[in-house]
## 1
Amino acid sequence: MGKGFYSVMGAQFFSSLADNALLLVCIYYLTILAAPDWISPLLKLFFVLSYVLLAPFVGAFADAYPKGRVMFYTNVLKVCGCALLFTGIHPLFAYALVGLGAAAYSPAKYGILTEIVEAKKLVVANGWVEGLTVSSIILGVMLGSFLTSKHFTEYFMGPQILKTMPISLVVAICVLILVYGVAAVINLLIPDTGARYGEQAHSPLRLVQDFAQCCKILWQDRLGQITLAATTIAWGVGAALQFIILKWASVHLDMSVSRASLLLGVFAIGMTVGAVIAARSLPLNRSLEVLRLRYAISGLIILMAFTHTLQFGYLWLILAGTITGYFIVPMNALLQHRGYVLLSAGHSIAVQNFNENLAILLFIGFYALLLKLNLPIDSVMLIVAGLTFVLLHLVARRNVYNQKNFDSLALINEQKKLNAQHDAM
């Protein structure tokens, strides 16, 4: 893959590691502040809000400068978000600033893959990205769990050096700032690929118009609309599941937040397995076959509602994670390839992020509303499962309709053309 690719992977690993650990640390901070239960899901909502609001601008930003430099600046912004917690600001707003950095980071991270990796290797490259991202989720959850554990908080007993923050929380935040710093340093090792996309628009109105046009192009494309819809739904459901698993473990298994967060690591292990299997077994032109998994995804969420033992819980989490990873990796790769053909690297990823994170906002907001209505977690899971099946089934039906009017061999021809362009460079 080349040295630049592995530098991107290393930076992504440490940045994602800190993102996931920080979520648990912020949830712990909310418990210290005695915030109500329905506030915790809003952390994710505030985090992804920037992905939606800044989508018209971050794609142009990622295409205007070398992407390694963009990734460095955005990691520095994440450091600032962490440090802001020391001022006593509410965790929602500090995590929102970290989300702003993540929103600007993502188009550069995924966009650079299309610059340094041949189209025929995009599924494998995405397998690397998702595998390392999931690994960072596992270790990030473990790190966050450790930083909020009773053992850690009792070890750092002492006078409060900040008004609303025990010293253990101060140390935890300093650890995460250090991890973000490591990611920023690795960003400096990413070489300039030499890819340039012409002068980018500077007027906010023009950027919004350009972004709207990019969205229109991708949504009207018979192949682009399917991959975009599928990944959008998958990420929305996945974000809700992150909080559902924590609540389910608390209600069904009587686990604390620190212990229950480790179950997210088990789910992430399954995602790693699914990502590896997909990267090795599914070529780009067979990616749409994973739409058949809609039955399994919905069924496993229903099964979770009737699981009350830790042993079956582990089995469910591994299976659900594996199927999720197997579903997301090829769809992401196909969407990136299609977006690169129709648009540009940064703009196509910005469109993808906008739609996926809008779905995350909707699913997390819907989940918070169900909690606000005091519905039991079992009912919440059944509702989410039913909604997931209906949405993915509609996507699958649309794909069948499109295939009658779209020759899928055109994808292979475009792939060969793109490969020839890479070889000529």
## 2
Amino acid sequence: LDRHKEACFVIMDVHLDKTLHGIERVPSPLELMALSAEMIGASRVSSHEIKFEAVKQIYYMSSESRKHCDPSDNISVVTLPEPGEWFPVRRQDVEGHGADYAGVVQRRRSGRNFAREPIPVGSFMRLISLVGTAPRSDISATPRLLPVTTGFLVGHVEGFDQGFYRFSSEDRAYGLLKPGSFVEKMARICLDQRWLANAGALFLFMANLKVLDDEYGARGYRYAMMDAGILGQRLYLGSAALGLGCCGIGAFYDNEARELLDLNDDSYLLYLVAVGNIKKRK
């Protein structure tokens, strides 16, 4: 690997100890098959590389390490109001679903054909539980500051009033910030994608960018975006396991979203994931 431009993200050790999805057990580790010259050639995306000095400078300027500031006065707070009451996600509400992992991964995809039917409360509690814990990678190892704050807008969920809710990862509890119908308004803010208005709930991943910059330096924005993406993928897999539709949205008007959610001046919505029942095909 080119140590200046490349890095290994994942190493996977595969053991086939039993028959799984038609794959027979093998007595010894599989030998790697040598790639043909044609396949090696296909991996080249360009015959040569164009180096843009400005891109390189941007990368190194945003590689600044943490400043080790103490953000205790405003720990990643993004919303102006606070919930009047918190409700815990109980263990019995999120017992294992028993879904087949390989099958869930195969079915995982974006689904937008939402039906205005309430999401069962048990299914919704499982989804909340999936985003209720931080990814806990090295980028969010500081216990006093998590890069992303999670919330959700309820449109059609069994047992939930419509409104804007915030989730507390530390307490594994949720609370109502503002009652009201916000799903259709957010659909208009998301470049007028009207199908979003039919979703049962819109999960929101938000961050206070100033606090992140004070704590992590210029890399804070990267950390928040990566954590938001990881949490969004949890919702994709969870929705596939529960037979729900799921679709992530990154296109919206920043200022309008902040105004709708009553975020403070330093905070922004980073990513939105819509979840709901899908219309059945005839």
## 3
Amino acid sequence: ISLFIGAILILITNLVNVLLGNHVPSFIWLGAVGVLPVLLLLIRFPDRMITRLGRFGKMLRLFEEGLLELRTNRKHLLEAVLCQLTLYFIGAIAIMFAFASIGLSIDIQIALVLVVFNSIMNLVNITPGNLGLKEAAFGYISEMSGLTFTQGVAASVLTRVAGLLITFISAPIAWYFLFHRMNVTLSDLRTRSRE
């Protein structure tokens, strides 16, 4: 769903840019390939294939059951789509704030492309937290939109630092409300995970 919604957003932003007479780099069009996973909704993996693949086959079966649940439960599918759209737009606003904090303004279309590419990159971590890769993608996409590579990298570093700060601030608060307040200890969590 994340890939599909992201690809649709990239297609829309690319088409808007083309209608406005702006050049869209070919690598950004590649982001629209994320539409293809929707075809997985139509696939039923044969039982022979599942049993031959062992552990990977079991993972495929779970994946297939999850897709079947989404296909048959339109309410859950709609909720998942709305949640993903909300996450993308919140991420785009955060990116716009990051650029604004260094005295630059970017269009929401560019911010959406950045947040979608960031989301797609998070699916495959080549380096820990995609350190360096996210910054390079931000720099390159920023350069394509008329800013400099350095400005894109600076905005990316700001979003990474802000994300870490939010995590460090919210983690103790979440721990307090979810575990400490309810007298849940680490040993309780270990016991539940074994069960």
## 4
Amino acid sequence: RVGFYEDYLDKWIKEAYKYLKNRVKKEDIVFATSGGELGMIKLASILEKKIGCKFIVNMHDPLDYSIVHGLKLNKKFHVNREKQEYKYLLNSNLIITSSKSNQISLQTKYPKWSNKIVNNYFGYIKQINLNKYSKTLSNKLRIAYVGNMGELQQPEILYEVYRKNSNNIEIYFIGDISSYKPLQNIENINIKFINYMPHDEFLKFMIENIDVGFVSLADNYLGACVPSKIYEYINLGLPMIGALPNGDGRDIINDKNYGMAYRYDDIDGLIDAVEKFQNRDFLESNQNNILKDRDSWSMKYMIKEVDKLLKGLINEN
């Protein structure tokens, strides 16, 4: 965990290389996606050196324990990964980030590579037919937090907002709270806890029962990440309240008028957002903005830009 090995997948990389070295050809393009780990990028870099194939790095999230805008992920001891990041990104043909913030951070660190560092938001996967469902009526504003219950997300921020303004609000926490103490021992008729459910069932529940989606990241470093829940809420046609650091996620919500997003520690701002959403005209206005743009946030549409980049690499041969 502390980083004495280059990556926790090092053993797997050796086995994977043995398998791939006789299958990957020089004319191939290897697409290496990272959610914070180095392993896929390292494997692709080794293949490039040994075989001469091209490879693309897809930074879904910044490399864990690298420096992003001068910040580290957390204060836990871990070997700095800047040298490894440089070493394995150096011979890549293209670096695709999932946020403009991370794109700018990498371009600032590696100005000689600026032209090969681009951003592409990944979007949602499969569009939902919203016409199949109808919203159940309620005189309360129903807000849902969905996903991981952990220190990086701090979903209890939503409960804190509720405690300070509980007028005509219902809060839904959807996920596993069994090992997350801040949300345990809460007993309130307007606070609902629901465990994970099959995806189709989850989609139906959200469309029929939820008015606003809540999304949170509680660390400045994470401003370089765009929570996938933003794309999921767009697919569901749900306006959003964001408790987020400065970065793409907050900008998408605010600049596009898909809801209201404040810093994760700005409780007063988040209370103001809840109060504004209690006005149904405001809620519907934000929802209409999402529905108007919804198609353009699908992965099917977003991938067209990546397709052009791939064709550009092929044409270089």
